[in-house]
Amino acid sequence: MGSIPLLHAHVRAWNNAYSGSCMVQHVVQHAQDRLPLPAALVVILTLLVCFVCGCGANPAAPASGLSSGAGGQSTTAPVPGETTTVTVLVSSTANDELTDFQLSFGTLTLTDAAGKSVTVFNLDKGSQLAEFIHSNSVLDPVISVSVPQDVYTSATLTFSNPQFSFVTSSAGYIYFNTAVNLGRGGFEPAAVTLPSAITVSGASMALVINSEVSQSVSMSGSPQENNFSSSVTPSFSITSVPVSSAQNAFGSGQVNAFGRIASLAASASGQNSLVLNLPTGTALTIASDGNTAWQGVNGYDSLSGGMFADIGVAIQADGTLLATRVEVPDPTARDLVTGPVFNIDPSAGIFNLVGEREQGQDFSSFRSGGMALQFTGNTQFRLYGGFQAPDGLPFTPVFDSTSIVAGQNVAVTSQSIPLSGPYPTATTMTLLPQTVDGTVDSLSSNNGFQVYEVSLASYDPLSATHGGVTLEVYGSSQTLLLNSTPAKPGQVLRFHGMVFSEQGSLEMVADQVNDGVAE
Q1: pLDDT of 32-78, one tens digit each?
Q2: pLDDT digit string, tens, across residues 363-418
Q3: What is the DSSP string of 123-179?
Q4: In this structure, which CATH number among 3.10.180.10, 3.30.70.100, 2.40.50.140, 3.90.1140.10 belongs to the domain 434-515?
Q5: Which of 118, 125, 219, 244 has the smallest C-beta neighbourhood within 10 Å, fewest atoms?
Q6: Could you tell me which residues come within 8 angstroms of residue 113 by beta carbon, excluding any fewer than 6 positions away?
Q7: How many CB atoms lie within 10 A of CB 502?
């Protein structure tokens, strides 16, 4: 991978409420990033405008989240002339160096040994942007399609518009660094590896596109010292997964669809269903039944088009999608953005958020970098609806205006998050699960919990302002252990769960453990 020539603009927030206009207007979709100035902290946003290079056939390892029992081929042979309903899912393998990694999907093509190819999807780059840090070690559904049954031995995936962000701190400054593509507007082939041939057969199956994030982005130097260079080689592994294996290995709570409701209708089977528009520009039809849990609304009849929803999805044997739970955090919201928070000023209620997923009336296109928002006494702080605190925790999981800390992953709803004007007010702030990559310092037990003391890298969003911190992770009998070897001190692992601040200490309630990624 060669080095990438850079243009960069320092957008400073000194005593004004907003940063100055970005120097690269045709690349960055917004003219101003709101960046508040906490009393003892000056914030700088660095825009790193880069070219994509080095796309080739570099091998990529299988997703570690799939290597512990979720992988495998269909046990039935393909039937010529028949098709299979394939649910395409995305996941990623990453450490915590990046706060977001995004690109637009183009075309996914599968080819068999005889050279016959089929197109799985062909997406319009102008209407979608897939983000991979939030799906680190877990699964997001993208699209359901019908694919001819066959044994496919190779795959081609094209992409465009790659961009990534990371946070650095130096001499009291917090830097939001965003690298975006400049100059190559068309689609390019990604580096794709198939750990094994993909057998498409039976009524339904899942296809997992795993972004090898830490292999895809290479960085050296410091943007703040003007010696930064980077290269981007988007690398993916693609694995076929029987529906039963996907559900057993990840659990229905780990397959979540996030988006905005487009319409309501009865499904082909007569069940109440909804069409959910995803940030990727695709749409899913998801049915509900008498076992669906409703959170934030009283039930299906309370739904309407335009609502934002986070939906736990179970893939059925026939390939249809069933909602295990439907969470609507704010029925009247017109904008929603998710991502890690920084530079929190509790007295003023002002904070920064680096957007990972964005939808709503004010997000016709993605905004690179950080945005500034505020919470008030009327803002509702809440916990993600899929979280259930296990009995016996030695602390009380709380998320409110006094316990919010930098690096937590949050969903914010608002009536409006415009490009300019006063700080947008958060109507709700929902603490979301996140994946943390770190080194195990010690293992112990406490009231039936497996307790991991985990050291985080200095670049981790949870420790960006501290130069490295320790996270105490609590695993229960319900925690999915997908790490390939038993945990031990010195081992790097990824933990997925809810992060809380308890009297200045960081605690995680983990629902999943995976093999780690080198820091």
Answers
A1: 334 444 433 344 455 554 433 433 333 333 333 333 333 445 568 99
A2: 876 565 678 999 999 999 999 999 999 999 999 999 999 999 999 999 999 999 98
A3: --GGG--EE-STTBTSBEEEEEEEEE-EEEEEEEEEEEEEEEEEEEEETTEEEEEEE
A4: 2.40.50.140
A5: 244
A6: 151, 153
A7: 15
Quote the tokens at residue 190. Answer: 């990604």
Using alpha carbons, select from 223, 247, 276 the residue that is nearest to residue 139.
Answer: 247
Distance linking the first and last C-alpha atoms of the chain:
20
Closest CA to 507 of 518, 499, 517: 499
User: Average pLDDT per run of 10 along the chain, which is 519 residues long?
Assistant: 31 25 26 38 48 36 33 71 95 94 93 97 76 92 95 96 85 75 74 96 93 93 84 94 60 73 83 92 93 96 96 90 95 94 91 89 71 95 95 95 94 90 93 97 96 95 80 95 95 97 92 94
* Alpha carbon distance 138, 242 (integer Å): 16
Residue 69 CA to residue 66 CA, distance in Å, equals 6
SS3 519: coil
Opening angle at CA 117, ends 111 and 118, nearest 5: 110
Give the integer Cα–Cα distance in Å for 442 and 277: 43
CATH for 330-390+399-432, options being 2.40.50.320, 3.40.50.1460, 3.30.530.20, 3.90.190.10 = 2.40.50.320
What strand order describes the sheet that includes 191-193? Answer: 140-148, 83-93, 204-212, 235-241, 191-193
